[in-house]
């Protein structure tokens, strides 16, 4: 499992004898191991209703999410609302995560309270899902693979926009966007992996340039919803051009 806006760890797997136990972040998502509640119980749960309504709004109106959904469909990984998204209770302050075992995005219904937050979480986790679709990502054993996807998610999801950073009281630094992406990628790895900060920083630094400059499927860093709309339009036009070749 993975941390909300800033993480996307993989699912648990059996450990070899003597290997250090690692839950791959599942401790943050306790509902993953519970029997699903009935539709009636879930429909009466305010958090769940609110989560579903906000998710629907994101998928129908947010250009970041719309571009990613179309890109995944083009890559043969069509996303279905009722199959690939799950509103659940989570521990801590995480907003969501990507479960590669089920190809499912978990949305933390008890922590996501605003539509703007839902937009960022869905976009962040869809980037992980897109990476999972297009590449052979070793979420379990290769921390560099995880670091790369975390860098891309922080870079392209809007996590590090100027307004979000001002809200965190972080602004005015040279190369601030790159600094924000690096810091959030490291934080995400530490949230879902039992590794030292030194290990997380080393993994991020070793792949940073290549992964920061991998802008697929946006083709640009979308610093705002306007940028995302332009990227979505360019993506659609690119597909139309390729179809006419």
TrEMBL record:
<dbReference type="GO" id="GO:0005739">
    <property type="term" value="C:mitochondrion"/>
</dbReference>
<dbReference type="Pfam" id="PF09768">
    <property type="entry name" value="Peptidase_M76"/>
</dbReference>
<dbReference type="GO" id="GO:0046872">
    <property type="term" value="F:metal ion binding"/>
</dbReference>
<keyword id="KW-0482">Metalloprotease</keyword>
<keyword id="KW-0479">Metal-binding</keyword>
<dbReference type="InterPro" id="IPR019165">
    <property type="entry name" value="Peptidase_M76_ATP23"/>
</dbReference>
<dbReference type="GO" id="GO:0033615">
    <property type="term" value="P:mitochondrial proton-transporting ATP synthase complex assembly"/>
</dbReference>
<protein>
    <recommendedName>
        <fullName>Mitochondrial inner membrane protease ATP23</fullName>
        <ecNumber>3.4.24.-</ecNumber>
    </recommendedName>
</protein>
<keyword id="KW-0645">Protease</keyword>
<keyword id="KW-0378">Hydrolase</keyword>
<feature type="region of interest" description="Disordered">
    <location>
        <begin position="1"/>
        <end position="21"/>
    </location>
</feature>
<dbReference type="GO" id="GO:0004222">
    <property type="term" value="F:metalloendopeptidase activity"/>
</dbReference>
<comment type="similarity">
    <text>Belongs to the peptidase M76 family.</text>
</comment>
<dbReference type="GO" id="GO:0034982">
    <property type="term" value="P:mitochondrial protein processing"/>
</dbReference>
